[in-house]
Please model this.
Amino acid sequence: MSVTETANDIAAIADNLRRVRDRIANAAIKAGRRPEDVTLVAVSKTKPSEAVRAALAAGQTVFGENRVQEAADKFPALRTQYRFQLHIIGGLQTNKARDAVRLADVIETIDRPRLADAIEQAMAKEGRAPTLLIEVNTGDEPQKSGVVRAGADAFIEACKARFGAKLVGLMCVPPLDHDPRPHFEWLAERAARHGLSVLSMGMSADFEIAIACGATWVRVGSAIFGHR
Ligand SMILES: *Cc1c(COP(=O)(O)O)cnc(C)c1O
Model:
């Protein structure tokens, strides 16, 4: 991305945020829900910390990053000046678990027993316990992170036993070029079945559909920060 494009993106962030917040509120009302029951997670991956600062200045307080290293490069310095919540939303390698636990307020992508082990050990070592979600690979796509649908019930129960109230919900990224609605509905049904209250689903292209299906967190990147 050129310097000019970055500057344009940064100038547009406050406006974009206002528009996205309006769209979230309208989608919630249309679904008979309260706007304040949907949290906007602003996804700042690949964007510079100036972009994050612009969003913070516009009142945004919840951010998502895919990669632990990028989160480590951008966010700790901002903690001295701003209050915010940082979510890790990308597939997580076990060797990154400790950094993730140290940095993040929320880890949305627990998806296998070995990662759950690593997170549990990291929480003990760091004396810090982020809020946790399980990522479900609702399209059963081989290249994607997330527990496959057939394994979801058993994994959710095992994580509930292990993490207790720290495990609050489910997250998904439906396959590209699919109607996301059945994926969102599947995730909502599964969360309800397991008594989990948080549903992290919906991105720039489909967050209104996700809200209609019960999303409580929407993860929106390009509609706020511009194209990547
Ligand atoms: C990049 C990303 C998003 C945001 O995507 P946009 O289409 O830019 O809104 C949301 N969730 C995850 C897991 C992502 O990787």
Notes: The radius of gyration is 17 Å. The longest strand covers residues 131-137. Residues 12 and 28 are 24 Å apart (CA to CA). The chain has a mean pLDDT of 96.
